[in-house]
Amino acid sequence: MPKLTVIGYGKYTVEKGTKLVLALEDNGVDILHRCGGNARCTTCRVEIHDGDFCELSSGETEMTYEDRLRLSCQIRVEGDATVRPVLTVESTGKKPGPRPAD
Description:
Layout: E1 3-6, E2 10-13, H1 20-26, E3 45-50, H2 58-63, E4 69-71, E5 81-85, H3 89-92
Parallel strand pairs: 1-5
Antiparallel strand pairs: 1-2, 3-4, 3-5
């Protein structure tokens, strides 16, 4: 199973194919996801420090503007990776929104 390192939080073993936003949330990372995983709000952005992920989805292409930023609701964990959440419940004081679908 892939190892996911989340800067500032820890290292976790994640089932291959898990949506990244859910892997983060299920391991206690208070990532925002205000639109419920529909690639509309960009609050679930993560900075990719290491690891390979699928190509940008059409929703990501329209919503992200920096090379290392991805929407965690649009990618799945396929191998070992290191990421850093950009926005969290704690850092913004906002509620996370509805849980994204698997």
